[in-house]
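S.,

Sequence below, as promised.
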Amino acid sequence: MIGGFQTIGKIPELKRRILMTFALLAVYRIGVHVPTPGINAEALQAFFNAAQGTLLGLFDMFSGGALSNLSVFALGIMPYISASIILQLLTVVIPYLDRLNKEGEAGRKKITQYTRYGTVVLSLIQGFGIAVGLEGMSGPGGEMVVLSPGWGFRLMTVITLTAGTAFIMWLGEQITERGIGNGISLIIFAGIVARMPAAIINTLRMWKADTISTFMILIIAVMMVVVVAVIIYVERGQRKIPVQYAKRVVGRKMYGGQSTHLPLKVNTAGVIPPIFASSIIMFPATIANFIQIPWMKTIADAVAPGKLIYSLVYVGFIIFFCYFYTAVVFNPVDAAENMKKYGGFIPGIRPGKRTADYIDRVLSRITFGGAIYVSAVCVLPTILIQKFRVPFYFGGTALLIVVGVAIDTVAQIESHMLTRHYEGFIKKSRVKGRR
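The prediction came back faster than expected:
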């Protein structure tokens, strides 16, 4: 492992890409602490401390704390992610987008361009909503969050937040092109990991105050290692369906005849199901935080984190969205048709509809296992906080993102090393990404 890291310095291009990635991420983290003008920072922080467990808390996690500070990057990368998801869903129902998706690199560039436009539009809408919402916010002591409410503040906030999101989007694209790994994923990764030092310091304070024992800290540490190992194992897990290609004669040459496989991921949907599920469940709490409606407050209290109803509804939504999003991103009929077009078949299964049905049946079974795994990881923080009194949030969507992004980034670094005939991080083995 140590030799693998030493090898990085011997490859100038890889070294330059890694340094570029760190430099661009540093720019992002600096921007998180640049505040938007016209805000009472203390009143805003007090309001967000009381808004934990709402959509605001979820968005603040993805923005790396930028929303609770209302920095120029307060919207974070969420508008870009939302625009990407919307376009993916529209690809299923709009034939034009479906054709673009199948046109290769040119089509993907066009879809990326539409995603950028969608990001700006969503940023304008969300920025205006945040500006209006801030004018009605106040801290526990009654201090107003906005110092000078009005259209001047609203326009300034909308322009600032939209420009911040556009800049983050540009940073992500630069990391992908000039750095290492997926830029958008690494920006989310950096925002989540930035909270780890505070969690460690808080744990040490509790240990010094004898609030938590040394034995309990050791148990928590072992549990964390085991959970991370399970996530790595499952995220890389695939069900390989054997595929045989028939021999074909083209002119005087014979092609095909090789055996390969169709890889089906255990967790095809990734982190999208818990994000969707969290957004839906947190919606009543978010509304109740702004508007004092008695029946909405009752619903928000019933589905508050830690309650049994919350856990059951959360797991139900995750399982539903795992199946729904898997059906959106992977079409067994298209896979069967492409296989048939190039002379491929699954041994013992007829090409065409029978193959599509077989793939769909296998995918449905492994998706159920993947949905149970995602549900277990996402419910884990509630169990740890309630039963073991863990002083920090461990698990859930954040942990899935951090581990997944780390796997993919390390796999990309290793692929650069292997391409230049160097050994990877682990001798006689290779770190594989999730794709």
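The mean pLDDT is 81.

Coffee later?
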